[in-house]
Amino acid sequence: MDGWNSMIETDVLVIGAGPVGLTAANLLADQGLRVLLAERHPGTSDEPRAISITDESLRVMAEIGIMDRLAPEMLMDTGARYFGRRGQLLAAVRPAAPRLGQPGKSQFDQPVLESLLLEAARQRPLIDLRFNTEAFRISDGPDYVDTVLIDDAGKSTVRAKWVVACDGGRSPVRSQLGIPMEGSTQVQKWIVVDTVNNPGEPEKFAEFHCNGSRPVVVVPGVQGRRRYEFMLLPGEEAAQVTTPAAIQALIAPFRRIEEEDIRRAAVYVAHSRVALNYRAGHVLLAGDAAHMMPPFAGQALNAGVRDVANLAWKLAATVRGEGTDALVDTYQAERRPHAVDMVRLSQRIGAVVMNVHPVLTAVRDAVVTASGIVPAAKRWLTGMKFLKQPYFRSGCVVAPAAGLSKSAAALVGRSLSQPEVRLRSGETAALDALLGAGWAVLRFPAGQAGSFEVQPFAGPSGENSAPVTVTDTAGAFTALAGSGISLIVRPDRYVAAAVPAGDESQAIDGLQAYLPRLSLSPVQVS
């Protein structure tokens, strides 16, 4: 530390260097902010916890710049198979066709992800990493927040404009602030066993064995990794089921394993809880500190990544004097409803998987099988359309005008598609590469099918970027082709507004309560 009782000034203090805290630190630094990242442990976790990652999270990882090293460590584009009480296949589900430039669902290894995010953070000069450092008393002020940090060298105070607490489900920060959690705790206990040295090529499906006796989940990975999860039966205790012999017996119906194949085994109880408030003054909660959910939908880590992707650019705008306090308030308005949806979905899937009542499981199997006969129901189930994507009806968005086409209006408040597009030079690029780090506009000129314009807004120093015309070779925006519509896109790649081309300034005016200085400042192109 800088000395006993020293004062350290920074823009944002991030507490917790798990995957969400590391993602937050990288995104904040990329917005030009000074970040101090404090973690009470000596390093990142070496335990595999989260295992499923979505396209939206991978889009963020690509933005941070680690996808080239992360991809070989993942089993990408995976689905799930659900088996009934007699072992029969009830349904095989897969995400819809990729829309955000990455597969809808993939399996990853959390220690690998954390190590890559940590390496990225160490390469960013604006990030000050502090391990073996614990955050204690937080004192909020009118324009800053002071946090006492303690490490082996003693005590210091960090004065930051904002604190982002990514300190986990037991969040000491949340407890100190007195923010209650709403929800419940699951009655059933589960044991999760991560194994290595699994032979052969993994199938790209997780398996949910809803057998009505001891439900089991099997999740494949690359490089011989595989996860098994078993529901504990009444009377079973952690000390009993986590012995190597007990684990070998549990896994025996699937494969024979040796003791050295067991990477980790732990018993857990899932929580379904969401913080009543995500903000207290200059302190904000993110990740498990803000919401906890059962693992059945694979959304816990992904919800945390969505949190900090939503929050980073908003904090940056306020630090630069471009955003208002109301902009920060939109974080909870936009993120909490979707977190609640994901908690409820996880509970519903868990109820299907964990049911052991003989009559109810028979009815469940019959209903799921029958749904396959109805085309619409089958598409809803097998296409994983039950997994709702974030949709902001309020917050930093402009409500579509009454006369706007349905196809354009439906994009407002949703993440922008990211196809590969072709430049006039003939080269191809991912759309995100052309949007820049800030706000941007996409224009679909009237009568001009197959191509559109991309123009980043003026940057912090006021520099302009000329529009770039690209060809939509993938047909991602076919519904808007030649429509004369403009899309105003936020830094987190969500669509803030959709308007006729002549109304762009009017749309930007509609965001003035959050960003009074927001301006496209277009250039004249001859």
TrEMBL record:
One biological process term in Gene Ontology: 3-(3-hydroxy)phenylpropionate catabolic process
EC number: 1.14.13.127
Source organism: Arthrobacter gengyunqii
Top enzyme category: oxidoreductase
Annotated GO MF terms: 3-(3-hydroxyphenyl)propionate hydroxylase activity; FAD binding
Entry keyword annotation includes Magnesium: no
Stated name of the protein: Bifunctional 3-(3-hydroxy-phenyl)propionate/3-hydroxycinnamic acid hydroxylase
Keyword Oxidoreductase: yes
Top-rank lineage group of the source organism: Bacteria
Coiled-coil region(s): none
